[in-house]
């Protein structure tokens, strides 16, 4: 039976080391642990990113995507944490962690999860700039393509 | 029926959520959008570019033909940009 | 100009959190940090894995592979740490960390590096079992294929 | 010429490294393998399955046709299994 993913949506920072330890501590069946952390970049004088989300639906949508990853690859563990609220340049935004006996399963499912989070989880990014300007980030066609390469939507 | 708005859709409408009771001929999301658009200039501005709008019915992504009923939680928002 | 990778071959454990911090601390141009940790599994009653390597050539071979990753993808940082010596089940063996402005570059280069480390770095694993048996791990054809999908050898 | 052995190649040869001075007609790795194989039963056993052996000249992977010279560091080992 596939493992149940751990999914959290929070304003607070996350601790990749503690989350990694939770997926591997005391186990001897994990051969590979892949992780991805998305961070806030300071492009074009950006001073902060404000992430709005849809409470309730966000957790539900991420859980569905993560459950699909757990069903599609032989994972021993899977954790997704996505932050919301105001994030300054350099701040971590999202953590994806996948553990498996097999390295390819861990690496592929990690890429799958981040691609689908981009297109399937109800978050919206507003950019705030040093000069006071604000701008909603527009969805990118390339993100839809990246998600589509994995086949059907979760 | 509870309607939620997010991101620039929320900013244009002017409220984050509202309780509405559309007439019985409003049966799907497309019908609800047409009916909501007539409520205020803000609503009209929010829904002006229909191709830029995404929606969810009871916290599941849904297309224009998705049925809507009294008691549903409906949300309108731009294409998502998380991750 | 491509960044210079950090490469270490050591018996001691490594600290993924500290290595991640080294690639991101004080920076606002990193959009994605991908990592992979390979761990020792306790398959078939394995009690330890003993990794032999070729001092000198190991660092050189890993550095060449890592430099190719830095040239092929727009990385802002790249760290590879590979342990040798006696490792018990659950122990981390190898750490690959790649940072980039773009998530796809970080994820792809991380997968590239671990695939090539498997086939291009002079390490040999000996398995020790609870019953006293020992066995050299045989190279897998699937590892050669995984590396080959990236095109020419580094 | 310094010759290093790793993993089960080292175990079969019985030493981790040795200094050798092959005759001038030994010009490449294939020739060196043939010459080394005659040094002892251990060497012969190590090189018996030539397809299982990989080599490096001066810490670079090299094939059977790679030239070898006095002063080189040559290594023989099984296919690698790191990562």
Secondary-structure blueprint:
The complex is a heterotetramer, with 2 copies of chain A (154 residues) and 2 copies of chain B (83 residues).
Chain A: E1 6-10, H1 16-24, E2 32-39, E3 46-53, H2 57-72, E4 75-83, E5 85-87, E6 92-100, H3 103-120, E7 123-129, E8 134-136, H4 141-148
Parallel strand pairs in A: 1-4
Antiparallel strand pairs in A: 2-6, 3-5, 3-7, 4-6, 7-8
Chain B: E1 2-5, H1 7-13, E2 17-19, H2 29-37, H3 41-47, E3 54-57, E4 60-62, E5 73-77
Parallel strand pairs in B: 1-5
Antiparallel strand pairs in B: 1-2, 3-4, 3-5
Give a structural overview.
The complex is a heterotetramer, with 2 copies of chain A (154 residues) and 2 copies of chain B (83 residues). In chain A, the strands form 2 sheets. A 4-stranded mixed β-sheet of chain A has the order 1-4-6-2, sandwiched between helices. In chain A, strands 5-3-7-8 form a 4-stranded antiparallel β-sheet, with no helix packed on it. The model of chain A has no long low-confidence stretch (mean pLDDT 95). Helix content of chain A is 33%, strand content 34%. In chain A, helix 2 packs antiparallel against helix 3 (103-120) and helix 3 (103-120) packs across helix 4 (141-148). Chain A is globular, with a radius of gyration of 16 Å. With 154 residues, chain A is an alpha+beta fold. Chain A has one domain: Molybdopterin biosynthesis MoaE subunit (Aldehyde Oxidoreductase, domain 3, Alpha-Beta Complex), CATH 3.90.1170.40. The two termini of chain A are 18 Å apart. The longest helix of chain A has 18 residues, at 103-120. Chain B has 83 residues and is an alpha+beta fold. Chain B has one domain (2-77): Roll (Ubiquitin-like (UB roll)). Helix content of chain B is 28%, strand content 23%. Chain B has 3 helices and 5 strands, in the order βαβααβββ. Chain B has helices at residues 7-13, 29-37, 41-47, and strands spanning 2-5, 17-19, 54-57, 60-62, 73-77. Chain B has a 5-stranded mixed β-sheet with strand order 2-1-5-3-4. In chain B, a hairpin with a 2-residue loop joins strand 3 (54-57) and strand 4. In chain B, helix 1 runs antiparallel to helix 3 and helix 2 (29-37) crosses helix 3. The relative contact order of chain B is 0.28. At the A-C interface, helix 1, strand 2 and helix 3 of A face helix 1, strand 2 and helix 3 of C. Strand 2 (32-39) of chain A pairs antiparallel with strand 2 of chain C, so a sheet runs across the interface. Chains A, C: Heterotetramer of 2 MoaD subunits and 2 MoaE subunits. Also stable as homodimer. The enzyme changes between these two forms during catalysis. Chains A, C: GO terms for molecular function: molybdopterin synthase activity. Chains A, C: It catalyses: 2 [molybdopterin-synthase sulfur-carrier protein]-C-terminal-Gly-aminoethanethioate + cyclic pyranopterin phosphate + H2O = molybdopterin + 2 [molybdopterin-synthase sulfur-carrier protein]-C-terminal Gly-Gly + 2 H(+). Chains A, C: Keywords: Molybdenum cofactor biosynthesis. Chains A, C: This is Molybdopterin synthase catalytic subunit. Chains B, D: Pfam families: ThiS (PF02597).
């Amino acid at each position: 039976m596939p493992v149940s993913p751990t999914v959290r949506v929070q304003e607070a920072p996350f601790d990749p080391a503690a989350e990694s330890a939770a997926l591997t501590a005391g186990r001897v069946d994990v051969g590979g642990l892949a992780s991805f952390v998305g961070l806030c970049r300071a492009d074009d004088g950006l001073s902060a990113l404000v992430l709005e989300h849809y409470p309730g639906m966000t957790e539900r949508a991420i859980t569905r995507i993560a459950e699909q990853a757990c069903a599609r690859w032989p994972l021993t563990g899977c954790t997704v944490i996505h932050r919301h609220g105001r994030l300054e340049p350099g701040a971590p935004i999202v953590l994806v962690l996948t553990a498996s006996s097999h390295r390819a399963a861990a690496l592929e499912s990690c890429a799958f999860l981040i691609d689908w989070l981009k297109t399937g989880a109800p978050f919206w990014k507003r950019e705030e700039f040093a000069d006071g300007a604000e701008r909603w980030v527009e969805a990118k066609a390339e993100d839809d393509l990246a998600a589509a390469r994995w086949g059907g939507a979760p | 029926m509870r309607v939620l708005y997010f991101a620039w859709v929320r900013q244009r409408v002017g409220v984050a959520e509202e309780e509405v009771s559309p007439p019985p001929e409003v049966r799907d999301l497309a019908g609800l959008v047409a009916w909501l658009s007539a409520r205020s200039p803000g609503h009209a501005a929010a829904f002006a570019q229909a191709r830029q709008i995404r929606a969810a019915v009871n916290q599941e992504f849904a297309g224009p033909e998705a049925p809507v009923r009294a008691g549903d939680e409906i949300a309108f928002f731009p294409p998502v940009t998380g991750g």
